[in-house]
Amino acid sequence: MCSSEEAPELFRCLRCGDCCKGYGGTAVDEGDIAAIARHLNLSPGEVRDRFCLPAGKGHLLGQREDGYCVFWDGLCRIHPVKPRMCRRWPFIEGLLRDPGNWRVMASVCPGMRADAPLAHVLRFTAARLAAERREALASPSASSEP
Length: 146
Ligand code: SF4
Ligand code: SF4
Description:
The protein is mainly α. It has helices at 30-40, 44-51, 84-88, 94-97, 101-106, 118-138, and strands at 27-28, 52-55, 58-61. The chain folds into two domains: 25-80, no CATH class; 89-140, no CATH class. Strands 1-3-2 form a three-stranded antiparallel beta sheet. The structure holds iron/sulfur cluster (SF4) (2 copies).
């Protein structure tokens, strides 16, 4: 999923693609679907029908038989508009609840520094998510492009 190299002392994506396979799928919200639709010149309904699966009140990106995301092709085919969940990784909200999740996540993502100080992980994640919220408030109608 490889989102960011803003803090290379914490994370540097190796582009192995492991996070684009399995792990329960990738959740997409309506903003993600709209951005993907614009990128692929499709309607949001077509994106939902062709690439998504219903999951609870929302959707997950579909997976191929080999377990990879439908958009994985050696690299992410929708990189400029990849879903928020993919762009955030590994600086996700779950770390705010329990920074110890970093060690668990690092066991499946070789780009994460498993031994990083958790206080630094927490500080950086909180700042990054706050910046994302400020951006969303400043331009609520903007696409989800990074
Ligand atoms: S959308 Fe792209 S980055 Fe996200 S899981 Fe699919 S292939 Fe990976
Ligand atoms: S598992 Fe980690 S290192 Fe590999 S592509 Fe995903 S984010 Fe990058």
